[in-house]
């Protein structure tokens, strides 16, 4: 039984999908006016992992993640770059895919864009007007929050309290300061589309209600995003979607915690953000993914380079154990019954503990801790276990990597991608070192060992062979 923390309920509840054996997920994607930063990357990795776990657990998953490709920020960036809004959006969508590929993030089943769904957006706004949930003023259309009885139910905010501190800004035509734009009348030089209310473009919130409905229906399973989207974005999505359909919008609301820098939220507005591609210049993408998954998704993460360095070493230990298991599963050493039994118990313990951790609101931190415990068993017992036992363990580790997506070493670009060539080069280096040792040329042998260590490769001198591993 999978339990999820539903923001709407404020506690963990059993996950029961709308359709048996299937999961429908919508996750808010980026507004594409810049390269993504680490704070943007967290929900991308979190919900990719949740999607992967549902698949591991046997569900058929439909995963939708949008791009906001028309917005004030995009228009401003186009002016700065002396370009067009559409060109800016294309540039940063391409950059997005390049960056998240390094994090082993799977593409969504659908990546809808706002600009591709104008007829559906206009149709939903018309529906809200017809139901008295919205009103039009001089080409602008606003949602009337006082006409939606449950406004504030996701964020736990009281509408009267919000109204007490709210103000209508000069130039706005709202009836109520909490009303929000569904459609904005065109301004000179901005991209716009023809509508029943004149040229204009959609407000921010309407897009996600439309695109989730388009691909998942009125009442789908999971809506995800960062905690900063709970209010007003997700609250407004609920209001407009449910006012139009008359039924529950999303069944479960999942939100990841912030990434902080010196205990302050990472954001572009505060200027304390780190672009993902800048981080990827110093750390491999799978290390960044591992770092993000080492904390439960709802908890905050405080960022610094040292924590990424620690993550890199920890991931290295897991990978070394995996590589040892892979090697021994193909060419097992001497067998010992007690070691074999211990290895089998460890494999079954990992299988159970991993599922238990992930079933408990996708606790990747505990799931990774279970993998660490298993690496100790590999290092202790694998050399004396049966080939079939090791093959079972290897199969499980590879299955878990389909969820965590950073256990198996990733090939480097260029020549490094040729594993066979790397193996042959290492065999040659080890042979040269062995010849030096046979001649009692300890200085050369030690120099080769130390130079390889500086390159991140450790040699292990065994009784019958020399092994190498990444460190």
Structure description:
It is built from 15 helices and 15 strands. It folds into 3 domains: 3-132 and 203-301, 3-Layer(aba) Sandwich (Rossmann fold), CATH 3.40.50.620; 306-404, Four Helix Bundle (Hemerythrin (Met), subunit A) (Up-down Bundle), CATH 1.20.120; 414-470, no CATH class. It has helices at residues 38-56, 72-80, 85-101, 118-130, 159-165, 204-216, 230-245, 276-280, 285-293, 305-330, 337-359, 364-381, 387-404, 419-438, 442-454; strands spanning 3-6, 11-14, 22-27, 60-65, 134-137, 140-143, 180-185, 200-202, 220-226, 250-256, 259-261, 264-265, 301-302, 457-461, 466-470. It has a 4-stranded parallel sheet with strand order 4-3-9-10, sandwiched between helices. Strands 5-6-7-8 form a 4-stranded antiparallel sheet. The chain has a 3-stranded mixed sheet with strand order 12-11-13, with helices on one face. The model is unreliable at 412-417 (pLDDT under 50). With 471 residues, the chain is α/β, with parallel strands linked by helices. The two termini are 38 Å apart. Helix content is 48%, strand content 14%.
């Amino acid at each position: 039984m999978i339990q999820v923390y539903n923001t709407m309920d404020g506690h963990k509840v059993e996950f029961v999908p709308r359709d048996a054996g299937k999961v429908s997920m919508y996750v808010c994607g980026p507004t594409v006016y810049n390269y993504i930063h680490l704070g943007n990357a967290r929900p991308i990795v979190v919900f990719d992992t949740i999607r992967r776990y549902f698949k591991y657990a046997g569900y058929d998953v439909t995963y939708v993640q949008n791009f906001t490709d028309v917005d004030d920020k995009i228009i401003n960036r186009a002016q700065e770059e002396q370009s067009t809004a559409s060109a800016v959006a294309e540039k940063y969508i391409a950059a997005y895919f390049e960056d998240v590929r390094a994090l082993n993030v799977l593409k969504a089943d659908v990546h809808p864009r706002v600009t591709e769904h104008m007829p559906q957006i206009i149709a939903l706004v018309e529906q809200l007007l017809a139901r008295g949930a919205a009103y039009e003023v001089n080409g602008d259309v606003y949602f009337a929050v006082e006409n939606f009885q449950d406004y504030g139910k996701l964020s736990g905010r009281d509408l009267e309290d919000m109204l007490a501190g709210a103000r209508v800004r000069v130039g706005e035509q709202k009836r109520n300061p909490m009303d929000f734009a569904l459609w904005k009348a065109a301004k000179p030089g901005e991209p716009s589309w023809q509508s029943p209310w004149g040229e204009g473009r959609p407000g921010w919130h309407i897009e996600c209600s439309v695109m989730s409905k388009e691909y998942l229906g009125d009442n789908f399973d999971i809506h995800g995003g960062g905690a900063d989207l709970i209010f007003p974005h997700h609250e407004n999505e609920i209001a407009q979607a449910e006012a139009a359909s008359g039924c529950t919008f999303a069944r479960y609301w999942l939100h990841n915690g912030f990434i902080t820098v010196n205990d302050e939220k990472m954001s572009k507005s505060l200027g304390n953000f780190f672009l993902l591609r800048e981080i990827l210049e110093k750390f491999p993408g799978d290390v960044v993914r591992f770092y993000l998954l080492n904390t439960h998704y709802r908890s905050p993460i405080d960022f610094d380079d040292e924590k990424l360095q620690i993550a890199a070493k920890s991931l290295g230990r897991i990978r070394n154990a995996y590589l040892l298991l892979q090697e021994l599963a193909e060419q097992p050493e001497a067998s010992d019954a007690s070691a074999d039994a211990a290895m089998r118990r460890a494999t079954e313990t990992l299988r159970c503990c991993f599922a238990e951790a992930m079933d408990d609101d996708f606790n990747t931190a505990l799931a990774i801790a279970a993998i660490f415990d298993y690496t100790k068993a590999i290092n202790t017992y694998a050399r004396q276990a049966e080939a079939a036992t090791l093959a079972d363990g290897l199969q499980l580790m590879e299955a878990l990597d389909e969820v965590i997506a950073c256990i198996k070493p990733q090939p480097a670009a260029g020549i490094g991608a040729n594993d066979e060539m790397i193996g042959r080069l290492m065999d040659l280096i080890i042979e040269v070192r062995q010849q030096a040792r046979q001649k009692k040329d300890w200085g050369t042998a030690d120099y080769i060992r130390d130079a390889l260590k500086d390159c991140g490769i450790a040699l292990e001198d065994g009784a019958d062979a020399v092994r190498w591993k990444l460190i």
